[in-house]
Amino acid sequence: MYRVVAMAVIALATPVAAAPAIDLTLAKTVLPGADDCGDVECLIGRAYRADPKAGQLALAMWTTGGDLAGVGADELLDGGYRGKIRLVSQLPIKRYRRHLAWVSEATRSIDKFFTEAFAGLPPPHYRWRGLTFRFVRSLQKRTPSAYATSWAITYNVEGSLLTSAAGVRETVFHELFHNNDEDHGDWSAIHLQTDYDAILAACRRRPISCLTPYAPSATMVRGGTYYAFQQNNGDSVHEYAAELAVRYDKEQREMLAAGKLKQPAFKCGPAENARAWKALVDEFFGGQDLVPAC
User: Fold this and answer.
1) What domain range includes position 95?
2) Does the predicted TM-score (pTM) go above 0.85?
3) 17 occurs within a structural domain
4) pLDDT in tens, 261-288
5) How far is CA 294 from CA 195, 271, 290, in A?
6) Does 6 reside within a domain?
C-alpha cells in the first residue's frame, strides 16, 4: 500500500549515500512520552522498559542500521477496496515482540543482500537503511499488513501477511520499494503505466488466467485477483512495481545462492514483462541483473 508523507531519514555506511538524520524531534513522534530524553537511545530505553528483550532488539536496529522502531498514530484509514480501517498505536512488546524480531531479521537480511549483490560495484540509487517503522494494530480487520510513507513503514501487527519471518521480509521489501519509488519522482506511474493499462484492458474478460503470465508474484486478494492488478487500491501500478521489485529480490538471491532459478525468469515471459523488468532494474538497481539473458 502506497502513501506519500514527507519525513527526514538517516543512512549509515556505504554503499548508500548520506541522508538527513532522524533527529530527536522526529524520534519523539515515534517514541513519545519521554520529553526529558536527550538522545534516541534514551527514548528507546524508556519506551521499551516494560519489555527489555524487545528494547534490545529496537536498540540494535537503531545502532546498526539507523532504523527506528516505534508506534504509528491512531487513525481511521481509507483502505480502498478494503473499506475503512481503524488503526491504533501498538508498541511491539510482549506478545507482539515477535514482529519486532521479524522486522529486525528482515532489515539485516536485506542489508546482506545488497552488500553481496553489489560487492565491488557502484551503489545503486536505492535506500534500504535508515527507516522509521511505525507499529500499529488494526481493529476487527487484518488489513492492510503495511503501508509506506517517505522513508517510513507503518506495520500492522494483525496483518494477514505478517505471520512468519519470510512473510515479513517480503512485505518489508515491498514497502521499501514504495519509499524509493516516491523518492524517484513517482517513477512507476510515469514509466510503467502504459503497459500496465494495456495488460488490464486485454485481460478484462479473463482476469485471472490472462493475468497469470504478467503477475510478478502469486500474491492474490481474497475473492479478487493478483494483488499487483487489484483495482481500487490507490494507483495500482505502484503495487505492480513493488511486486516486481520483490520478484527482483527473489531472483537475485536465488542466483547468488544456487546460480540458477527454480522457475522461469520473469523477464522471459511476455514482452511487457521484459520491458518493465529492464526499466526497473536500470532505474533502481544500477542495471545489475544476475539472471542470464533469455
Assistant:
1) 24-183
2) yes
3) no
4) 999 999 999 999 999 999 999 999 999 9
5) 20, 12, 12
6) no
